[in-house]
Amino acid sequence: MLIALLLAISLGIWFQSYRLFERAPRAQQIAMQVVSVVKLTRAALLYSDPARRRFLLLDLVQNEGIKVYPREKDDDFAAPTANPFLTQLVQQEIRGRLGEDTVIATTVNDIPGVWVSFEIEGDDYWVAISPERFERVPGIQWLWWSIAALMLSIIGAAFITARVNYPLKRLANAARQIGSGGDPPPLREQGASEVAQANRSFNQMVHDLRQLDDDRVVMLAGISHDLRTPLTRLRLETEMSPVDNVTRDAMIADIEQMDAIIGQFLNYARPGQEVVEPVDLSTLVQESVGVYAAHDDVRIHVRSNGPVMAMANRMEIQRILDNLVENARRYAKDEETGMAEVEISTRVEDKDALLVVADNGMGVPDEELSLLTRPFYRLDAARSEAKGAGLGMSIVNRILQRNGGRLVLANRPAPKSGLVVSAIFRRA
How far apart are CA 202 and CA 199, in angstroms? Predict the structure, then answer.
């Protein structure tokens, strides 16, 4: 649009400049035509045979559109005002060549035309010239030619900008794939120097990120092996040690918690993007309810109106559901009953498939909802008794991003209380 505006302004300035520079030569050309017609007509009448003068005048009318009339004292004529041919410059040129006493008119006795007076041996005459002899390209044709030139220029500009923007569009698409956990192919390091340099830098960045992911996988594998092996030994030694049952159970619980935290670290740092496929969220929830019902401190309520197909990885959805239920089980227990009420629902909204987990806990302050997806962030004031590393929501958010979905957190509307977590997937 900016290029189109620039072209329109440039075309307007060019047209106005053409009119200004064309005015003087055009006026001189019209004046020369008028003067030539008047002089030739005067000479023809002056030197022609009087007997054949009538035929000469008739021939001028029929072939040249030139009429000659005697000028009478009572002729009613109108001086030029807004005539596009008889401008001030044209009149000055005509009088400069035919004499200052030359009369120029646009109508004589209500007959339109270009009228110029001249004299033959003391007698005054009018020469009436048809305006068609001086006809220029009409304004409407200039308008159509201008529109055509503007449209061609815009089409050319659109083609050029498309060629220029194409590598930038590819760069944007590749960056979007990187942001969603994808693995785009290398960009072509050709074209304009700035574009080639940008693609070269982007390819280097992608290579460095891949190398970083590979190093992270190796590091995490080493951490998992090096930490879980002694934890397993500790648990075995604890179970076989001659201590009372209470102490033994407490030590085993601590070891299990350490193992769970390591598992959370590994889940959060898991690289790559899983293969997505159509998954029925309703069926997956129904299959998981039995596992959650094994805990005596949580009660699950399921709401579903039929199949809800989502494009995602089945194992990833299972991990999301496990994290959300475990999060509600830990943080949303009733103080009197010690029971966590969890409602799991699935539904379809336009092009989205939703998995919603709601609890009846205390909820979260609205200003801190956006902070729940930060790694290691915990609400110490409301959940100081909870155990964990603060990675549950971060893991859910990262899994959703890998599957092309998004996470929405909100508090339940009054009079109820609790947290509502919506995992939104692409509808299959």
Answer: 5
Angle between helices 245-268 and 193-240 (to 10 degrees): 170
CATH of the domain at 309: 3.30.565.10
Regions of the chain where pLDDT drops below 70: 19, 22-23, 50-51, 53-54, 57, 61-62, 64-65, 82-86, 133-142, 181, 215, 217-229, 243, 257, 260-261, 263-274, 376, 379-390
Whether 236 and 201 share a structural domain: yes
Name the phi and psi angles at 375, rounded to 5: -60, 135
Structural domain contains residue 51: yes
Q: Who's near 153: CB < 8 A, 6+ residues apart?
A: 4, 7, 11
* Percentage above 90 pLDDT, the chain: 10
For residue 48, give both structure tokens.
């022609």
Tokens 């193992």 appear where?
A: 259
Q: For 333, which DSSP code?
A: B
State the residue range of the domain holding 230: 149-273
Instruction: Bin 272: left if φ > 0, else alpha if -120 < ψ < 50, else beta.
Output: left
Strands (E), 196-339: 277-280, 298-304, 309-312
**Phi/psi-derived region of residue 306, left when phi > 0, alpha when psi is between -120 and 50, beta in every other case:** left
Average pLDDT, the chain: 79
What pTM value is reported for the model? 0.47
Angle, vertex CA 46, rays to CA 45 and CA 47, nearest 5:
95
Please give the structure tokens belonging to residue 143: 């308008």
Which residues make beta-bridge pairs with 299? 341
Query: What does each C-alpha distance from 368 to 363, 374, 408 come to in angstroms?
Result: 10, 11, 13
Residue closest to 333 by CA, chosen among 387, 293, 297, 384? 297
Question: What CATH code is carried by the domain that includes residue 183?
Answer: 1.10.287.130
